[in-house]
Amino acid sequence: MRWINVQYSQRVDVPLLTSRFETDTKLRIIFPYFTAQQPVPDLCHQEEFECGSSFDDVVSLDKCEAHVTEHRKNPDDQVFKDYFGGLDEESIRDNFVVIYELMDETLDFGYPQSLDAKILREFITQKSNRHEIAPRPPIAVTNAVSWRSEGIKHRKNEIFLDVIEKLNLLVSGNGGVLNSEIIGAIRMKSYLSGMPELKLGLNDKLMFEATGRSIARGKAVELEDIKFHQCVRLARFENDRTISFIPPDGEFDLMTYRLTTQVKPLIWVEAVVEPHSHSRIEYMVKAKSQFKSRSVANSVDIVIPVPHDVDSPSFKSSIGSVSYLPDRNVIIWSIKQFNGAREYLMRAHFGLPSVSGENPDRWKAPIEVRFEIPYFTVSGIQVRYLKIIEKSGYQALPWVRYITQNGDYQLRMT
Amino acid sequence: MAQPPPQRRGSAPPQNSQYFSEQGKKGEVNELRTLLRSPAVERDPKRKREVIKKVIAYMTLGIDVSPLFSQMVMSVETRDLVVKKMVYHYLCSYAHEQPEMGLMCVNTLQRDCSNDDPMVRGLALRNLCSLRLPILLEYIQPLLRGALKDRSAYVRRTAVMGVLKVYHMDQSTVRSSDLIDVLYDMLRDTDGMVVSNCVVVLDEIMLEEGGIAINKAIVHHLLSRLNDFNEWGLCATLKLAARYAPESDDERFQVMNVLDPVLRTSNAGVVLEAIGCFVQLTKDLPELHAQVYERLKAPLLTLMSKSNNEGLYCLLKHAELLVFRCREVFASEYRQFYIRYDEPACVKHQKVQLLAQLASESSAEDILSELREYAGDCDPSLAKAAIRATGVVASRLRSKAEACCSLLVEFLDLEYSYVKAEALLVAKDVLRKYPERRGDVLPSLGRYLGELDAEEPQGRAAALFLVGQWGEEIPSAPYVLEPLIDAYATETSVDVKLALLTATCRLFFKRPPEVQNMLGRLLDAALEDQTSSDVRDKALLYFRLLRRDVNVAQRVISGRDPCSIQGAFAEDNCAVMDRLVDEAFNTLAVVYGETPDQFVDRAHRARDKPDADDEPLVSNDAPLVSNDAPPAAPVEDSFDLLGSEDVAPPAPPSRSLVESAGSVTGDLFQAKWAAISDQDERTLRVGPVTQGADLVDAMLASLNVHTMASGEVGQELKFFVYARDSLGALYLAQAVISTADSSTQLTVKTEGAGDASFFAGVVEEGLRACS
């Protein structure tokens, strides 16, 4: 492990940016935020807790106290990543001037200033040769709507709405669902000119109740905990559950929500393991899709753990392909298209060394499943309308897409 | 990038190692100087930029490029903003080393401060203030004042930060001028960024006074502007709101309604800060507490399911605090705390602990079966944590003790010895709390003990404790001990030896004929034990006790009933948790599980500021007891184990205050004061106290009542005193003597078996002498 101090301090002896390179070249930046003359408690020796896994996890010290403030936005617009694509030793080396510029704008005397990558981009341009025109401070820096600059123009006014739901699931060894929750996000890609005013309608149960409207068709969804992008007028939502906002330009998460309802596992996997110690081990894996037959799950990967000392794998499956990854001690059963209400079987056979140091119980990793089901949401959430009003009165096209993905989807093995 | 090479500026150049000395580097620096001076470079902006970039790169590497200062100052005259920024950066790094040279760039910076472009104005002002040159203060001040009224918000917010920088260069300049008032006015600025900068700057400048002064108007104004702030501004503002105590319940609800939407933001820091606000706002309203916690539950759970592992750990730590305050909050959501295979160990441990706290009548069964799963984990520390959690569930829920015990027995039958050992350790505590459940564990105890290997001394000591405690119910008890006694010479663990001694002795009192012989052998071996003085001393103590009087020995060694545990275990540290909720919510302190004063260096701490009333006015931090007075050990003194027949403590009337009470410093006093909740308040009627604080001090000291701190507030004399009595009880008291109406309010807290009225009598006597 190597330490590098990029000294960027306006105060004596205080490295503001300390970047640490781990052996696996994964970079963690510890970005202590100083006020007055306080020290940072020894973060580096906290083995269990490493503050700041990315640029915008900022650790701050204030008064005699130390604050952990996680400054996490959409992972896509983390400032550094946004500028350099990725964050590693190489990119820091190549871009140190830009980093200095960024640090200069994002932090003043240890206090964070504007950290929104989109705004920063307007006055710190990445390619230095683009600097020939003297940049103006973006209006947004001084604007009431800090996330959107005025005078944005797009030839085609379009807005894309992705409703993405991730299913977190934990199934116990005996087949009982221990925990299931849906983490949903409405992701927008906005390419709209001017200062558009948007209003989004969902089949939100509480909204129906608030407006006293009866649920005409389909079902309404009760969203448990909703979080919004800062552009959404929260007070308005509190009053009548209307989601109204002026969107930032480009991609952002408009809202995220969470539901903890009992969900039937969309893809059910059962693995029967027959170990014949010191000679071979056999797997019989059954995968069953428990969603409607008109839906299709794409690129399904079923990851099944195996002991680390197995050899000579052989597989037989009714669909898809199976591969053994010795470095991860798993087999992956990949199925390109998994139709709803189907059931498939796979058999795997391995040899075991005659001498084994390991107890067979010791590799109890769970089965993981990855999948993506388009045109389907587990919760049943639907976009009813998206109204776009702009003073120039252009017609804009909203595109809506629904996807259900696996989140943390684990089935424990018996 | 390599480590910065060591710099040895000013040292004599080494003679031989020319190539590796600084001279080589100097060569590079010289080269850069030539380049900077060259007219060709001057003409070509692109080359110029490259050269400057190289200078900055060297600076980053740790090479001393300060000799280039004058060339760099000249380069600041440029239209290229990137070059300008780099040069500014250079200046900020080196100016404080060369103040005279620094003056050279003032003109340019001053000019830039009146540039048409707000970007340049802001940049120049920011860097001017960052030069850290106090001699520039006279130039900075007028520029700063102008910038605070600039029409561009970007410049204004930079100027606000500038005030803070000036403050750190020279505190008196800021304090004596009206800058602070200007900043207070600027809280009404139209730009959110400016406002939030004002808040943090004022907060830091007013640090000594306990941060920015808040009143209803300021707080309400800031809360109405919440939408204008970015996440950081929100955090700073919410921290203020948490400090604010609303005047009425209506206002409280008003504030809470404003804060409610903030819980919908997706930033963990902001949400935690808002949660902290809610907790503080409803601190005194227990009936609201439950509702508020219910409201906070969902946002916290959502954050947990979205966070990365570091964030998750931090959130779990906060959840732990909330659970501590109100267990019911997450009770129904316990499934959210089931561990996932790929989480890091720290998160898993935290979740296991929380699960144990969350278990309720209805969920205990699910949680226990989940814990059973974890106990089989391949990570021994997690398995142990799960077993400990089982014990916690047992001690919390009496009705589930049976289920827990049967689970523990299941663990005892697992084949891993660390699981067995931990299960024995936990079983010991559970049985101490529920002795009636001992039938589950005792019958196979001998087998468990035999199966444990030498690497688990704690587990074996726990098993031995059980044998000593309930030996009469284990038919084979003597035969459990005998092999251990025979193998005494090969035993390496002191814990096991000590436990073996106690267990054998206790068993001896219960079953003398069977054990007498082996006890003799054990004492023999232990008395000869050269490896541990503890073991030898204990054996000696037992031996002498037994020789003198077996009955006394039995009373001492077996004790009355060491088993019975009422209430919580001493380890459940409530005081720290309470302080964390109240003082350190959303800070690193929560993550560390320590209060800030435990890990922040004293020198860096703002002056301790509990409520102004409690603050000692004159603090005597030095130990009050001089070194030659031996520390008091009253318990041992009055308790002659070997000499007297009567082991009972001396009768209460013989209470008196002893001269030395140990040293109680201000910090210790405060900590103890906060830790003891029982207090005895009384009004002493003594004549008007006519003497000054010093005399009262002396008078109390003559009665062995020591003064930790004292002082005068208006019409009141305030004393913080402490004393120790002959039974070892520590008294802490606060006396407020009103000189106006000659009444004295005395608040007494006692640690140990103290008698508050006795102590009050002593104080009264002392005060009477002063009147």
UniProtKB/TrEMBL annotation, chain A:
InterPro entries linked to this entry: Adaptor_comp_med_subunit, AP2_Mu_C_sf, Clathrin_mu, Clathrin_mu_CS, Longin-like_dom_sf, MHD
SUPFAM superfamilies: Second domain of Mu2 adaptin subunit (ap50) of ap2 adaptor, SNARE-like
Main localization, broad class: membrane
Domain MHD: residue ranges: 156-412
The keyword Membrane is annotated on this UniProt entry: yes
Lineage: superkingdom: Eukaryota
A GO cellular-component term linked to this record: endomembrane system
GO biological process, one term: vesicle-mediated transport
Sorted UniProt keywords: Membrane, Protein transport, Transport
Record carries keyword Endoplasmic reticulum: no
Alphabetized Pfam families for the sequence: Adap_comp_sub
Subcellular localization: Endomembrane system
Matching PANTHER family: AP COMPLEX SUBUNIT MU (PTHR10529)
Family to which this protein belongs: Belongs to the adaptor complexes medium subunit family.
Protein name: MHD domain-containing protein
Protein's organism: Pelagomonas calceolata
Taxonomic placement: Eukaryota, Sar, Stramenopiles, Ochrophyta, Pelagophyceae
Automatic annotation (TrEMBL), chain B:
Domain Beta-adaptin appendage C-terminal subdomain: 657-768
Protein name: Beta-adaptin appendage C-terminal subdomain domain-containing protein
Cellular component terms (Gene Ontology): clathrin adaptor complex; endomembrane system
Family: Belongs to the adaptor complexes large subunit family.
UniProt keyword Glycosyltransferase, yes or no: no
Region (Disordered) residue spans: 1-25, 606-630
Keywords on record: Membrane, Protein transport, Transport
